Amino acid sequence: MVMEGGTSEMVAAAGRVYYTMPFYLGLGVILLYAWHRFDEPSFPRDEALPSEVVPLRYLFLRPAYVRARLVYVTISCTLYFLLVLAGRPILDALGIGAAQFPPAAWPLTIALLMVGVLPNPNMKWLNSAEDRLRRHVHAWFLVPDGVKETIAVLQDAAYTPPQAQLEAVKEPLRSRIREGLALPRTELRYRWARASMLMEAIHQIGNGAPHPLASAGFQAFQEDLVALRQRYRALRSDIDTSFASPPSEEVETALREQVDGLLQRIYAYLSWGVRHQAQSDRIVFAKLVECGFRVPVVDQGRRSFDVIAPALLLVMALVFVMNWIIDATSPQWAVSALASTVAAGLMYGGSSLIVLRRRAQMIEATTWDPASPRSLVGLAWRAGLATWAVIVAVTVFFGFEAAVNSLTGLWSAAVRGSDLDEAALWFPSRVATAAPWFLVGASFSVLLASRLDGDVRRVTLADRARDAAVAGIGLALAVVAASIIQEGLEAAIRGAPSPATVEPFLLPGTIGLLVGGIMGFVLPKAFRREIMRPARTQARLALRELMDRAKQRLGEDAEAWAFTRPEEDTDIRITPAEALRYRSHATGVWALLDQVAAARGSNWQPSAAAVIDGGRKAG
User: Fold this and answer.
1) Distance between CA atoms of 487 and 505, rounded to whole angstroms?
2) How far apart are CA 231 and CA 263, in angstroms?
3) CA-based angle 465:470:473, to the nearest 5?
């Protein structure tokens, strides 16, 4: 590979390699390796997984497996392309003398090193990166997290076996199951009745009787089914003995743990078969509902973009008009105004989207706490990095020629050891001077998140004005601070003194005040309105059911309870009306209603979500 001819010669030489037979042979090696390597587990084994997890397709939703595999293969091939582009010196960097191999064969050598056919201790970093990449691709497509989430949902869900399945159970077991399911869920008899009914329902799969699940989805788990049946039969004798004569507290605790372990394994077995048959999570939980589980109907309402869009359009219009007024005499005012408008739209729209989606993820994972700095820090650094990246991207886009010249100069300096001139430093300096805007994105995300929690009935003009004032003043301070730091960095790079007055920072601060005021005035109201008046039918029906039951139990206090954050000691740290949108909280909302009603002295009745064959679900 010729290195002295400059960057263009290097790129041309690398391009010629892509048309050689060794390159295509190496590409074939990478394709075959990645195709088979994807099926190897990248996660530790536990009770949520079957005894055999290879091939992994049985843990994926049906269409997701092919997509995930293609993503992994594509990334592996891209890595191969980049290593080939680096040239033969990559072999020297790995401690392998390039002279040991024919000049035309080095792409194939790279491929053989990547797949481990040519072992090399210096490639451990690449193997580690490959393991991490595969783990991220698996996790991206919810393996094994999708199975674990399904198990957690089944653990929390109430269960009423379909009548046809219950009638197919022979006496006297059917009567014992019916009696056990009528008891509170804290009772050992209830848990054993639930396990017994689920085992009977599993036996009915594929025996010719009507059943919502097809036996084809469970064929890969026959060994697990045999082990499950053995575990059930071994435990049944101990349970029968304990029911005949009351056991000691220690024995009952041990039996309870064994029954809970059996139930978790049953849930895991059902999850494997259902997810393997289904096209989406929605179908997974619909099938589980047909099996008798009262899985909450989760619908988070309109997409986040629909909540953000009205405020964002106003902000972009404001930024464009302000730049038009300021730079109207400049011949480049249109480009400047467009760049500022695009940057504002991406900055504040992206930060808002991060807040809403990341907040939703933490709520689903039961880690969101608006009073905890940890929750807000998780939003802040993501929004800050996104804002920094947006500023850099917009700057590069509208200064594309300068960016290309800068990157070319940096590459030439790295390869040929030449000095860095002002043109080459253009891109690094832009990245450095954009860094202070991390503070703006981080501050805006915290300000916005702080206005979303609490009483969602705060939609009056005074409430909206208060939100606007907090967001506007906070963002103005962040913009001024970022501008001062940015100006100092630019002055240091140019070797010029920093401005000694505050006048240059008044304009950015004013724009920050107006932008923050608009976002604070419009966006929190749109978010709260969506919780109180869901746009989608499923969310609207779920809220109506909750409000009807709350009015029966709490009377005039129903609305205040539903639309404010609970004061009780509970994992639900958002309003019950919003908690209905999340599968991890929806079941607990009904138990919380029972808890609040009992604490306030109303006549206790089981909520609709807790009724099981005339019995009651323990809160």
Assistant:
1) 9
2) 11
3) 110
Q: Is 356 helix (H, G, I), strand (E, B) or coil?
A: helix
Per-residue confidence band for 318, with pLDDT thresholds at 50, 70 and 90: very high
Confidence grade of residue 142 (pLDDT, cut at 50, 70, 90): confident
Take residue 431 and report the two structure tokens written for it: 């990245």
Asked whether the predicted pLDDT for residue 619 surpasses 50, the reply is: no
Looking up tokens 């954050």 gives 565
Cis ω for the linkage preceding 566 (within 30 of 0): no
pLDDT at 347: 94
**Number of C-beta neighbours around residue 322 at 10 A:** 19
The CA R_g of the chain, rounded to the nearest whole Å, is 31
Task: State the Cα–Cα distance between residues 257 and 266, nearest whole angstrom.
Answer: 14
Q: Which two tokens stand for residue 426?
A: 């253009």
Local structure of residue 117 (DSSP, 8 states) = S
Query: 616 - beta bridge partners?
Result: 611
Q: 494: part of which helix (H) or strand (E)?
A: helix 461-494
Copy the structure tokens of residue 575: 């309003």
The token pair that represents 200 in the structure block: 């009977």
Q: What is the pLDDT of residue 605?
A: 44
pLDDT for residue 603: 45
Residue 399 CA to residue 395 CA, distance in Å, equals 6
8 A C-beta contact, residue 583 and residue 364: yes
Q: Per residue in 376-391, pLDDT tens?
A: 998 999 999 999 999 9
| Continuous segment of H or E residues that includes residue 267 | helix 249-277
What's the CA gap between 394 and 346, in Å, rounded? 9
For residue range 494-547, list pLDDT tens digits in order. 776 766 566 678 888 999 999 999 999 999 999 999 899 887 777 888 889 889
For CA atoms 82, 86, 88, 89, the dihedral sign is: negative
State the pairing for strand pair 158-159/615-616. Answer: unpaired
Structure tokens at 579: 């908690």
Domain ranges of the chain: 7-142, 148-294, 304-532, 537-616
Per the CB < 8 A criterion, the answer to whether 97 and 91 are in contact is: yes
* pLDDT tier, 95 (very low <50, low <70, confident <90, very high otherwise): low
- At 472-481, the pLDDT tens digits run 999 999 999 9
pLDDT for the residue 311: 92
Q: Return the structure tokens found at 270.
A: 């059902």
> CA 130 to CA 132: how far, in whole Å?
5
Phi, psi of 612 (to 5 degrees): -135, 105
Helical segments of 365-460, H only: 373-398, 400-416, 426-434, 437-450
- What is the CB neighbour count within 10 angstroms for residue 45? 11
Q: Is 368 helix (H, G, I), strand (E, B) or coil?
A: coil
Q: What is the pLDDT of residue 562?
A: 93
Burial string for 274-286 (b: 16+ CB within 10 Å, else e) reads bbbbbeebeebbe
| Residue 612, strand partner residues | 615
Residue 498: strand, helix, or coil? coil
Residue 616 has what DSSP assignment? E
Distances (CA, A) of 412 to 5, 82, 420: 10, 18, 9
Q: 261: which 2 tokens? A: 């372990």
Is-contact 271 202, C-beta < 8 A? Answer: no
